[in-house]
Amino acid sequence: MKFLTIKKRTLCVLLVGVILICSVVGVCHAVRAVSSPKIVRTIVIDAGHGGVDGGCVGKNTGITESELNLIYAKKLQELCSQAGLRVVMTRADMNGLYSPFATNKKKSEMKKREQIINESDADLLISIHMNSLPIKSVKGAQVFFRGDNLASKEFADSITNSLKNNLEYIRGDSKIGDYYILNCNDKAGILIECGFLSSPEEEILLSQSDYIQKFCNAVMVGIFSFLDM
Ligand SMILES: [Zn+2]
Q1: Which of 7, 88, 105, 227 makes an SS bond possible with 120, Cβ 3.0 to 4.6 Å?
Q2: CA of 15 to the centre of ligand 1 (A)
């Protein structure tokens, strides 16, 4: 009986010990969860062209690609900031990124974009452009990714899926794009051709504030999906 009593007491002590250890571990875990810093993701938003390089031009409205790219980039900047992302813009006005002394302005501005992207410590990169073709009937947005970068492809697919679900005109699936802006860094980078300024119908659509909001909202859904936010 005495042996049994001692054994029972030992078991009780052990049980209390286990409960205490579990509680302490639980509290520590909870404290760590509360005190651990929130991960802030950084995105580079790159408005293509600028300065003397206006890109393609809408024949009906006279709007330049560089102007529209900046409008879309700024809308995305606003939405990304509201969502808690840190945003780095390659350009925030209509000026070109090239050095005023550069003999080759295109090379100079691309080197500047490369420098901004690589100094940004970003997770994501979106480069914004408008498309153009001699054929007026071609319409639709298309997303390009870097062929040897899986994260770039997954990000492009995520954005494409959302654009397909939310917009009228999409020009097929995500596609490999051999672009300097994607090749000059290892970010999960994509280039979005938002639509065709050479299509009279899409030119009007791309310039409308409701459509810009709708387009950028769809891009945000793709970002959230890719980041699992
Ligand atoms: Zn362009």
Answers
A1: 88
A2: 69
Q: Which residues contact 186 (CB under 8 A, 6 or more apart)?
A: 149
Chain segment 86-107, per-residue pLDDT in tens: 999 999 999 999 999 999 999 9
DSSP 133: -
Q: Is residue 35 pLDDT above 70, yes or no?
A: no
In the chain, the number of structural domains is: 1
Q: What are the residues facing 175 on neighbouring strands?
A: 144
Structural domain of 159: 42-227
Distance 128 CA to ligand 1 centre (A): 8
> Which two three-digit tokens encode residue 198?
């050479």
Q: In angstroms, what is the span from residue 221 Cα to ligand 1's centroid?
A: 23
Distance CA 68, CA 62 (A): 11
pLDDT of residue 22: 47
Which among 224, 229, 206 is positioned nearest to 70, based on CA atoms? 206
